[in-house]
């Protein structure tokens, strides 16, 4: 059932909104910041100009697309990245991902994948080490890093009082993009994910898979060059998974870099240019599928067999 949002209705500040806001601005919103203004671009920020200027002002260090494609920059370089909770979760991790790669980060439960990606996305402070995103020191300049990066968590962060189109307008507004300029690409993005029949329905009635797709579309609104996804295909039906995979492959074709964690090894096998396997917070194997096969002396084996053998060997040595 379709439920249009009434114009000029204030949006209460709630948890998903706070998480989204915090992710982009690294700060907390206050009550009354957000107001729906007009039906054509219904979602507007009223107060956070000081934050908007942070994300919209061109950063001189921000590399342009041509420079990214022609330089020797890494899309992501982690050096000695370390995070400890009660024990080490990420242990002096070194990882380099090239521009334009589709990289699958694999590992058993608790290996440190999400913790690594949360540090890259600026949601968790490392105890030690460095994070460089397209040459930008993400720890020293997190706002500049976020301008060129998308983070899609395994728990979709969407504001479900809005329709998908309004949500994307809202996110575009957070990035300081004129909603009129972003409307067409937002619509196309949602359609490419199979959400056309639901463009004007409130997200609150959506299934988990539909919410995941809206969250993915929202993360791509500012045209990021590095897309980081934590388990993006879990819980998606076959058609939805195909839509998501198609969208990610399309982005890679246009020069974006994608880093994805997944437990669905067939997806990594089919889609990834390179695969990294981590266990106990350390990289234990990396390469193309064929390189991994060569390294492990298993010429015709599946990724699943290789993964299980690698993880078993690591566990036995620990
Ligand atoms: N906020 C936290 N507080 C305490 N321990 C944590 C926290 N977040 C993660 N950990 C611990 O850090 C380790 C790595 O967790 P992480 O979520 O990064 O693993 P993962 O590889 O993403 O696992 P999964 O495949 O199950 O999602 C685990 O031992 C986990 O219990």
UniProtKB/TrEMBL annotation:
Alphabetical keyword list: ATP-binding, Nucleotide-binding, Transport
GO molecular function: ATP binding; ATP hydrolysis activity
InterPro entries according to UniProt: AAA+_ATPase, ABC_transporter-like_ATP-bd, ABC_transporter-like_CS, ABC_transporter_ATP-binding, P-loop_NTPase
PROSITE patterns per the UniProt record, alphabetical: ABC_TRANSPORTER_1, ABC_TRANSPORTER_2
Domain ABC transporter stretches: 68-305
Homology family: Belongs to the ABC transporter superfamily.
Function: Involved in beta-(1-->2)glucan export. Transmembrane domains (TMD) form a pore in the inner membrane and the ATP-binding domain (NBD) is responsible for energy generation.
Name of the protein in question: ABC-2 type transport system ATP-binding protein
Organism of provenance: Bradyrhizobium macuxiense
């Amino acid at each position: 059932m379709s439920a249009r949002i009434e114009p000029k209705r204030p949006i209460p500040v709630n948890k998903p909104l706070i998480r989204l806001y915090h992710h982009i601005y690294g700060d907390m919103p206050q009550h009354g910041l957000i107001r729906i203004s007009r039906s054509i671009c219904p979602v507007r920020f009223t107060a956070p100009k000081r934050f908007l200027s942070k994300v919209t002002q061109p950063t001189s260090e921000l590399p342009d697309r041509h420079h990214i494609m022609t330089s020797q920059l890494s899309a992501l370089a982690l050096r000695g990245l370390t995070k400890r909770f009660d024990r080490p979760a990420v242990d002096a991790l070194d990882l380099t991902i090239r521009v334009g790669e589709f990289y699958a980060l694999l590992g058993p439960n608790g290996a440190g994948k999400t913790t690594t990606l949360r540090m890259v996305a600026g949601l968790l402070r490392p105890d030690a080490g460095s994070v460089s995103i397209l040459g930008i020191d993400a720890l020293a300049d997190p706002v500049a890093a976020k301008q060129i990066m998308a983070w899609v968590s395994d728990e979709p962060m969407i504001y479900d009082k809005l329709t998908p189109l309004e949500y994307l307008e809202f996110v575009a507004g957070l990035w300081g993009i004129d909603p009129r300029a972003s409307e067409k690409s937002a619509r196309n993005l949602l359609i490419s994910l199979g959400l056309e029949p639901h463009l004007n329905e409130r997200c609150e009635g959506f299934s988990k898979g539909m919410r995941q797709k809206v969250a993915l579309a929202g993360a791509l609104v500012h045209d990021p060059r590095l897309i980081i996804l934590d388990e993006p295909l879990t819980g998606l039906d076959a058609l939805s998974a195909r839509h998501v995979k198609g969208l990610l492959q399309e982005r890679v074709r246009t020069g974006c870099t994608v880093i994805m964690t997944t437990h669905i090894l067939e997806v990594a096998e089919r889609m990834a240019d390179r695969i990294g396997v981590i266990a106990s917070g350390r990289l234990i194997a990396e390469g193309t599928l064929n390189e991994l096969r060569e390294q492990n002396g298993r010429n015709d084996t599946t990724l699943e067999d290789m993964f299980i053998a690698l993880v078993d060997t690591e566990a036995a040595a620990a």
